[in-house]
Amino acid sequence: MRRRRLTSVRNNQSGYTLVEAIVVLLIFAGMFMVMQQVFQFTIRGLQASRAKQVAVEIANAQMEIIRNIDYNSLGTVGGSPAGAIQQEKIIDRADNSFTMETTIRYYDDPFDGCAGIAEGLDPTQWSKCADGTVVEKARDVPAYANNPADYKKATVTVSWESHYAGQPVTLSTTVAPRDLEGDTDKGFMLIEVIDASGSPVTGADVHITNTVVSPTVDISMTTDSSGQVLLFDLEPSQHSYVVVVTKDGYTTDRTCSVDAGGTACTDAEGAPDPYLQDATVHLGELEELTFIIDRWSTLAVNSFNESCEPLGAVDFTLSGMDKLISVDPSIPKNQISFTTDTNQTPHWSTNQLEWDLYDLIVNTSGYYIAGINHDLALNILPNTSTTINVLLAPTTPNALLVTAKDSGSGTNLSDATVRVVDSGNTYDESRITGQGFIEQTDWSGGSGQSDYTDDTQYFSDDGNVDVTSTSGQISLKNNATPIIYSENFSTAAFKDGGNTDADWNVPDQELKMNVVSGTYPTTVTQHAQTRKINSTTGQVVSATLSAVSQTNGQTIRYYMSADGGTNFEEVTLPMGGALTFAHAGNDLRVRIEMETSDSGVTPVVSSFQVSFTREDYDASGELISSTIDLGPSAPALSEFTTISWQPSSQPAGAGTDSVRLQIATNTDNSTWNFVGPDGTASTYYTGGTGDIYSGHDGDRYVRYRVLLSTVDPYYTPTVTDIRLGYTLACLPPGQAYFTNAVSGSNVIEVHLDGYQDVNEAIDISGYTTKEILLTPIP
Q1: What is the mean pLDDT of the segment spanning 170-194?
Q2: What spatial distance separates the first Cα and last Cα of the chain, rounded to whole Å?
Q3: CA pair distance 572, 579, nearest whole angstrom
Q4: For residue 520, which of 604, 600, 605 has the smallest C-alpha distance?
């Protein structure tokens, strides 16, 4: 079967299809739009060309006026030179508004030398022109009534604003007097603008006004490449030329009025600051003025507490110390008061701070500066951006902030040990620069405190530690058992025969002197001594002795020893209380000495009794601290440094490593895995100090665990101080802060490996700061 092919055949009929008609219309529409744009562009070009032509005509007309004015009268209203020509004029012409600006300036031609002095050179030899060129000719300062300006330069600029505005039209010309440097009855002024480093500032706006002279002066000029502005033909006037120097992004410098009601630049006595006084122009003389401006600086201030938590609503004052408004040093030129706000970052900032040496003062009561990541005297340089982190601590009666610095570079030195000791040795504290620390010295408040709010409490213990018997000390629990020993000499069971030569008379049940050759010896002392009285384990630290005796006018002396007779301590009867042994031990003995001066008489002891307490300590004990919160800034910013405790040495009888510590940290305040220096639960910090495992870094919450043990129940280890060191982002390097110091004479000792030790005296009174310079060891 044959396929039929469908085709579209145009019949031989006239006309176009609808599609073809639309295509043709689109082509014509596009051509029309292009032609229209070309036409509009041509019209705008013609209009712009016409506007420029008119601008040229306006400028030429102004030039003709300038050329036809007498040289001495050629100037602008309020300008220098002064004259009748308006500095700015609006002209409406050809359906446009044109702005015509006319400037007329004196020009000091270098051909005969310039009025400026070439810096560092003999002013009688070389001069410096306004463009900075040094001319090897004498300074161009003619004698009285002569003008150093050689001729005048006139510039006319015409601009216009519309949708077809073009480049402004500028025409310039020079106008010379008949005789160069003709006579004048005016004065001159050379203004130099430099920055803080002494370099010239180009493009600075200099505004000179004088409302005292007639006609009044109102001149605005811009410094050249040498930072200078040279003005001629100024009316002589005493302290009435007001000069203000500005530039976008720069500080402002200006003269000030002698009158305190002018620009408020005077002190209480009305004496002006000499280098800011409004300028004077003398007849035929050159007045030279130097102004200093430089770029603004940016300063940001953040305030934190000792946990590096943002601290807002704190009032500060930045008070400049180098720049003064007047001769009165109590009036700073630069002074800013501000309040920190923790709802913004940074807590306070400004981008218009003038360079100066500033003192940062805390106005809010109850706070001292405990650290700052900058010198306390803030030396703000021009065009710098500085962020200050201020650490604030509650005020104490006496506080000390110590900064350790390298003596050569002035760099703050962290990890230096700083010790402060008062003259009476009642205050002895040590800190490490650049570190915060967690310290606990008292646990007598007991257990049950989850968060570290009361510094005398802790979280838990296993019941085998003692925190109350001695305030500020952790020890093992003491199982004290009171015991009474009585001796009536009815037996010789506790007689130490090797150390007894007196008559331990069992039949008579008494102790008396032995008869020698029928009499009692008068030239010797006889002794009676017991063997070990306490038959059970435990240490004896104190005992009370009583006796029934008859001296018969002779002598009886009593002694007790807790260390097996190595050290006997004399007891005077009757005792006023228990004897606390200087040498405690686990072997209690009694010794009695008898003497007579009558060979027929002997003293007699019928009985004695010893009351003592046997002490033995639990074999081990555990205490866990409350949770210490480093603050919300700790995650990712905290770094733990060292752990230490006191005393670092323990009784030998307690055994090796009788004090061990572990640390647990987290970010959730609930997961507590105590580990040692290698990050495992099987190791411990021992020996009184150690570097904290780096795996704790970045955590916010921390607890410590103390493990006490003894191999001899007669001894217990003790802990009186535990300290954990750490750093946070807000903690400043090289500084250490001391609270509750002792007022008066103190000594600061500073040690840092690689540097010579420093020992300096300091007098502490209220809030005190001290800078210590450390010299490297050669």
Answers
A1: 71
A2: 113
A3: 10
A4: 600
Work out whether strand 639-646 and strand 721-727 pair parallel, antiparallel, or are unpaired: antiparallel
Residue 28, judged by CB atoms within 10 A of its CB (0-12, 13-18, 19+), counts as exposed
Q: 447 forms bridges with which residues in the sheet?
A: none
If one counts every other C-beta atom within 10 angstroms of the C-beta of residue 418, the result is 25
CA atoms of 336 and 368, how far apart (whole Å): 19
User: Does the pLDDT value for residue 55 go beyond 90?
Assistant: no
What is the C-alpha to C-alpha distance for residues 263 and 378, in angstroms, rounded to an integer? 28
- Kind of pairing between the strands at 744-751 and 417-422: antiparallel
Q: How far is CA 263 from the centre of its chain?
A: 36
The rounded distance, in Å, linking the Cα atoms of 357 and 378 is 6
Nearest Cα residue to 288 out of 127, 402, 74: 127
Q: Write out the E strands in 501-654.
A: 503-505, 510-512, 526-529, 539-550, 555-561, 569-571, 579-585, 589-595, 604-615, 620-624, 628-629, 639-646
pTM: 0.58
Q: For residue 239, give every residue at least 6 positions away whose Cβ sits within 8 Å of its Cβ, in sequence order, or none.
A: 257, 258, 277, 278, 279, 280
pLDDT tens digits, residue range 217-274?
999 999 988 888 888 778 899 888 989 999 999 998 888 775 544 444 544 333 444 4
Residue 286 banded pLDDT, cuts 50, 70, 90: confident
Q: Write out pLDDT tens, residues 534-590.
A: 877 778 889 999 999 999 999 999 999 999 999 999 999 999 899 999 998 889 999
Q: Are residues 592 and 557 in contact, defined by beta-carbon separation less than 8 angstroms?
A: yes
Residue 684 CA to residue 666 CA, distance in Å, equals: 18
